[in-house]
Amino acid sequence: MKKYRLFKLAALLLIFSCSSNQNKTAALTTNKATDSTSDQTQTGNAQPANTDQQTTSGASGCNEALWKHVYDPTRLQVLDKCQVVTGVIEESNADPDGDQHMLLKLDKGQKDLLTKKNKKKKQGDLVVEVVCVNNITRKRAMGACTGYTNNITLPAVGDHVRVTGSYVIDSHNGWAEIHPVSRIEKMK
């Protein structure tokens, strides 16, 4: 329990103190701590500050307003408000909460973004979730997308892509995700 409290405090400090140039280093450091605690049930307030802003954060292109459309954002622990990853889409499915749930086989040099749960439960892939692109069938999630339709073009399985969004740990499952996704670009 003491380890978990230290991890939670460290994660919160990183969220508020990291500049955009330090985000990748902070995420990597925090992710290593997460690997040792990812099997524990974790909760936390993952919603970034200023979610009412309709602007993107910095030159990186992350849209903080998307957090208003994340179903149960408290389950997501933010390690980096805006992360860019590249890889190949290996799986893509519609979730009952309206999100498109994809598995991304990361390109070389990014494996440190994965947790033990990604390796064990997601075949070593990073989970990528685009909010509000599908019909919502889960009653509890009905309000998440009210008044919003996501215009991100979903990639096909096998596409090599660059994904931009918040790098989080899903505390209900213990795996790392890019959620919500702000942008997906198909690479050549």
Short description:
This protein has 188 residues and is of the alpha+beta class. It has helices at residues 2-17, 23-37, 116-121, and strands at residues 56-57, 62-63, 76-94, 100-106, 126-130, 160-170, 176-186.
Number of helical regions: 3
- How far the N terminus sits from the C terminus, by CA atoms, comes to 46 Å
Q: Could you report the average pLDDT, rounded to the nearest whole number? A: 76
Radius of gyration, CA atoms, in whole angstroms: 15 Å
Strand content: 25-35%
Oligomer: single chain
Helical fraction: 10-25%
- In spatial order, strands of the major sheet run 3-4-5-7-6
The unreliable regions are 1-59
Structural class per helix/strand content? alpha+beta
Count the E strands.
Answer: 7
Q: Strand-and-helix sequence, N→C?
A: HHEEEEHEEE
- As for the number of domains, it is 1
Shape verdict: globular
Could you give a short account of the major beta sheet? 5 strands, mixed, barrel
Q: Which key features would you list for this structure?
A:
alpha+beta, 188 residues
